[in-house]
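The instructor's notes for this session suggest beginning with a concrete chain rather than abstract definitions. Hand out the sequence below and ask the class to guess, before any prediction is shown, which regions might be ordered.
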Amino acid sequence: MRKVPAIIDCVDGDLARILYKESRLIDTATNRDFSLLVVLLALIGKLDLFLWMAGIGVHLFWITALFSQWRDTRGAPAISEKSA
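After discussion, reveal the predicted structure:
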């Protein structure tokens, strides 16, 4: 069974669905289980498509990760020097 991030338990409605879908997308994109795709594309002679997909996908991933981090830290309180 897949573990749901704790933040999703604290949120209701549409936002929880969006956070869950985003979490699933990031988990899927970071598992690096794309070897079957490489083999399949090699068998049909289209391995160059993998390079294009990887080249575009890596930029989509870092932009999504950056936006996610920015959104998560935007509402977080700043750490004061007294508590550090």
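Then share the key points. The chain has a mean pLDDT of 75. Residues 6-74 form one domain.
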